[in-house]
Design a protein that fits this description.
alpha/beta; Rossmann fold; five-stranded parallel sheet; globular
Length: about 160
């Protein structure tokens, strides 16, 4: 089982808004396809919805469109339908929140603005017993508390040799 960071969903839904390499965008889409197809089991903290909704609305708004709220609401409605039972959302409970704070205390510095949400993804991956956390977030890619991969790195590490 893997834990997905919201950026992976964002890369797959709106690659034009992403600032990562084309190979990572393609790998994010392939990984989401594998999750939806049942080939990969995935979990994410419930905050994924708010982050993906914000990601979508923010870029729609920044392009001067006035329908940014409608677009963000559309994404919110589509996420559970599109991912269905393939992605299990986990509520942020006391244990996850507490561990997330510990991770933020450990990893945050002025040079490394490790966010509360970064801690929530890391804590979810840890508490849920995930084999890996998949992200393109440089703050999360730098930790060693759980195995962390980019989408391309994860797909490469799990491909038959």
């Amino acid at each position: 089982m893997i834990c997905l960071d919201a950026c992976i969903i964002g890369h797959a839904l709106a690659p034009e808004n992403s600032k990562v390499e084309a190979a990572e965008l393609m790998a994010a889409k392939e990984l989401i396809d594998q999750v939806m197809g049942g080939g990969v089991t995935a979990v994410a903290p419930s905050i994924l919805i708010s982050e993906v909704k914000w990601f979508t609305g923010r870029f729609t708004k920044s392009k001067g469109r006035t329908d940014f709220m409608e677009r963000a609401d559309e994404v919110e409605d589509l996420l559970p339908q599109a991912l269905g039972k393939a992605l299990r959302f986990t509520d942020v409970d006391f244990a996850i929140a507490s561990l997330a704070a510990d991770y933020r205390l450990e990893h945050y510095s002025k040079k490394n603005p490790f966010s509360y949400n970064d801690g929530l993804y890391l804590a979810t991956a840890s508490i849920m017993g995930c084999d890996a956390l998949i992200t393109t977030d440089k703050h999360l890619l730098a930790v060693s508390d759980v195995p962390v991969f980019t989408p391309a790195g994860f797909l490469d590490s799990n491909s038959p040799k």
